[in-house]
Amino acid sequence: MRKIALFVSLACLAACAHGPDNHTRRATTPVAQYATGAGPLAVNTHVPDFATRNYEPFTRQDVVAIALREWRLFGEPVSDDDPLLRPEPTTPVVKPERTPGLWQRVGEYWWIGQDPQETEIAWDGKHDADGHITDFVHDGRFAWSAAFISYVMRVAGANDRFAYSPNHATYINAAATGQEKGVKARNPARYAPKPGDLICVGRGASKSVRFRDLPTPQGFPAHCGIVVAGPHDDAPFGHEISIIGGNIDDAVALTHVPVGQDGRLFDHRGRSLDPRYPWCVVLQVRYDADSEPQADQ
């Protein structure tokens, strides 16, 4: 496994140093399952206090670190091939999401990432809400890539800045309409994604969705990954960034994405540099800081 360029912050904001008296109240967060991410706010009791009470600021460093931690847990898989060329599994034992230790972890993505009143909180990597084992072939209904993103944002302390949902389109459209206070939808032809940002693409019949089409009048199948390494020169694309996403080949996997010398996903003519994925949007996340304050050192 070749090394990836891990995100290392260059900034440390001393103003974010804080003591125990600043974290007495748990934050409320948006209720999921809304087409644009808008909805009432409530405390999610499934989320740990260190996140809902923001023991530390909401930072790029933490989002990247959490995504990398989950990737390591799944064995550091790298998925750079064209998804259309991947063979379908013929046995459940080849699906990491269904293996001992990992199917429970997927269940934690659902339990923490979604709102307590939603059915999905009882799902895991191989069981439905009633505890029945799901069909390992026809399990698209239980796709957990958006649950993974929601989990990372929850645990990192995004709180009311993100539209948590089992569907990527929820927070894509929320950002595109300006209803998501912590995320801004950016044109991938004009904005270079940074570590901690998300890049997203439509899937299946929605692969043709472009930035100009956002927000869409209805939800659409999509996939998003968290940028964990900025532009660097390496195989397979020469100049690339690294992203981590969930439910890629039934695992948390790292994918390399080609970018131009300016760090953008598109060339100067507005054409995607990635032959596999026509990225439709970059979700620029508004963080408190790039990294945690170093008050404990």
Describe this structure in words.
- The chain has 297 residues and is of the alpha+beta class.
- Helices cover 18% and strands 17% of the residues.
- Helix 2 crosses helix 4 and helix 3 crosses helix 4.
- The longest helix is centred in the N-terminal third of the chain and has 14 residues.
- The chain is globular and about 50 Å long.
- It starts with 28 loop residues before the first strand and ends in a 12-residue tail after the last strand.
- 44% of the residues are buried.
- It comes from Komagataeibacter xylinus NBRC 13693.
- Keywords: Signal.
SSE blueprint and pairings:
Elements: E1 29-30, E2 41-42, H1 49-52, H2 60-73, H3 102-113, H4 145-156, H5 168-177, E3 183-186, E4 198-202, E5 222-234, E6 238-248, E7 251-258, E8 281-285
Helix pairs in contact: 2-4, 3-4
